[in-house]
Amino acid sequence: MGITRRHFLDGAGACLLTVTGGGAWAAHRQSAGPHTDSLARRLRVEPGAIGRVETDEREVFLTFDDGPDPTYTPAVLDRLDQAGVSATFFLIGRNALAHPHLVHEIASRGHVIGNHTQDHLWLDGLPQQQVHGQITACERSFASVAVATTGLFRSPRGWTSDAVRASVDDIGLRSTFWTDCVEGFVRDHGPRGAAERIAGRMRPGSVILTHDGGALDGPNAQRIDRSGSVAALPYLIDAIRDRRFTIRPLAGRSPVT
């Protein structure tokens, strides 16, 4: 499978309308713009990133951010098991350290794990040294809980910069964005309606973003209700399969050592 820059602009930025939290840190970062709030802008900064996977097969890629979270991750894993689906989980290092049993559950059930930074900071306004530190700290957290990494990275909110690109390249990871975000549609259409709208927008190689994490402590603390995302998941899987698409996990580079 190759990588293409063709994408869906609206869905790629929809999650930005649904995410809140972070107190003083978030308020500061949100005022630091301009941010890469669309897939087109992200790929201009990181042209080597995964936006949509180029494939001749009717396959799409389901990804989860911000976990692991004991409130939502177990239910997500059970729903994926019931449907026989493997997905990709971009985990926050701080959360991985707090809930190592959930990290092992994700891995043992056949899912792919990617790096979502140590503290979920907005990276696009940070100097390269701090960006680099956030990414490598997450890798160390994975190592400390004895889970293999996949070479995949996703910046919080998809906000990227030259410093992010340089850090990712230096560490040997590959940035991964998305074409559509479930939460942007759940807000307006509910779980079932969101699933139908996401499935109706799919093309081969679409990368779908949703969330299994709502709680985060630390410098960018957040408390977000993800119950709508969990409720949408079985509808989404059914809607994807009704259109004769297969759901697969993303495959990254060799593990980083």
TrEMBL record:
GO molecular function, one term: hydrolase activity, acting on carbon-nitrogen (but not peptide) bonds
Superkingdom of origin: Bacteria
BP-aspect Gene Ontology terms: carbohydrate metabolic process
Record protein name field: NodB homology domain-containing protein
Cleaved signal peptide residues: none
Domain NodB homology: 58-248
InterPro entries xrefs: Glyco_hydro/deAcase_b/a-brl, NODB_dom, Polysacc_deacetylase_ArnD, TAT_signal
